[in-house]
């Protein structure tokens, strides 16, 4: 438990900042946009809107509480992805960059225990953010007046946040064990997250199923979730397969790789 507690203390400030920032953002966005739900006649103005097309949003559902949450929740997904992949990268590479790798390995901990402790601490950090985001989202959506509320649909939309955070966390840890010497993890985290996000927007605009395969942000279709109350089986299987690949590859490389410090 020593490594777990140490990592939690290391990232306490970061977790608090991300949790407050993401929660406040979704509260503000939903509060401001709640006024749009009172004017469904404005739907005609959104027909052919390039922004909504890029977001993959159906104008017919945009002016509903769940529709607005689905749209603005996508921005929260991007922020959550940046937090998760940056955490995954830094929690692995900091031992090399701070020259503490050798010190850590002299402790009575196996490499398996080190990796799993770091993974557990990172998951706990993201869980705290996800709980804060859930509370803020639920409060904001329920506060939208004159809208029917389905907790099942809401929860399935909310689940996209922790699911994508777990995806990017394991991706970041897998990259971290391969590229140990990363001076600053945030620029790389931003580049990867925005890259996947832009690919997802491109796939929505051109309706490309091939491009969609390369963006985890599009593995879960908000419109389909609202219409049928479920996830697409094929993309869910792809998500789980990639998740397993990142976990196994990151763990395997970590327990076998030589620990080299930056001189």
How would you describe what is shown here?
With 263 residues, the chain is mainly α. The protein has one domain. It is built from 14 helices and no strands. Helix 2 packs antiparallel against helix 6. The chain is globular and about 60 Å long. The two termini are 30 Å apart. The mean pLDDT is 84.
List the helices and strands and how they pair.
Blueprint: H1 2-10, H2 12-33, H3 43-46, H4 50-55, H5 59-62, H6 65-97, H7 101-105, H8 111-142, H9 151-158, H10 160-178, H11 185-206, H12 209-212, H13 222-228, H14 233-256
Helix pairs in contact: 1-8, 2-6, 2-8, 6-8, 6-9, 6-10, 6-11, 8-10, 10-14
List its traits.
mainly alpha; 263 residues
User: What's the tally of helices?
Assistant: 14
| Shape descriptor | globular
Largest sheet: none
How are helices and strands ordered from N to C? HHHHHHHHHHHHHH
**Strand element count:** 0
Rounded to an integer in angstroms, the radius of gyration calculated over CA atoms is: 20 Å
What percentage of amino acids are in beta strands?
A: under 5%
Percent in helix:
over 70%
Span of the ends, CA to CA: 30 Å
Overall pLDDT confidence:
84
Q: Residue ranges: pLDDT <50 for 5 or more in a row?
A: none
Summed up:
This protein has 263 residues and is mainly α. The protein has helices at residues 2-10, 12-33, 43-46, 50-55, 59-62, 65-97, 101-105, 111-142, 151-158, 160-178, 185-206, 209-212, 222-228, 233-256. The chain has one domain.
């Amino acid at each position: 438990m020593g490594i777990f507690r140490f990592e939690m203390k290391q990232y306490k400030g970061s977790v608090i900042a991300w949790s407050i920032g993401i929660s406040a953002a979704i509260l503000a966005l939903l509060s401001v946009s709640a006024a749009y739900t009172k004017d469904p006649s404005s739907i005609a103005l959104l027909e052919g809107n390039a922004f909504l097309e890029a977001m993959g949003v159906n104008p017919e559902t945009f002016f509903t509480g769940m529709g607005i949450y689905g749209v603005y929740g996508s921005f929260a997904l991007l922020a959550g992805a940046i937090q998760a992949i940056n955490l995954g990268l830094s929690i692995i590479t900091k031992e090399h960059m701070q020259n503490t790798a050798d010190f850590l390995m002299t402790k009575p901990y196996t490499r398996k225990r080190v990796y799993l402790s770091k993974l557990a601490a990172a998951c706990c950090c993201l869980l705290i953010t996800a709980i804060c985001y859930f509370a803020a989202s639920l409060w904001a959506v329920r506060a939208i007046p004159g809208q029917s509320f389905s907790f099942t649909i809401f929860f399935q939309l909310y689940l996209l946040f922790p699911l994508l955070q777990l995806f990017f966390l394991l991706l970041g840890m897998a990259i971290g064990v391969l590229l140990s010497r990363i001076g600053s993890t945030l620029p790389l985290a931003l580049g990867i997250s925005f890259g996947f996000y832009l690919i997802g927007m491109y796939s929505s605009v051109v309706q490309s199923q091939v491009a969609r395969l390369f963006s985890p942000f599009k593995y879960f279709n908000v419109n389909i979730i609202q219409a049928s109350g479920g996830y697409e089986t094929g993309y869910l299987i792809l998500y789980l397969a990639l998740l397993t690949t990142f976990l196994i590859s990151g763990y395997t490389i970590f327990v076998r790789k030589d620990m080299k410090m930056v001189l």
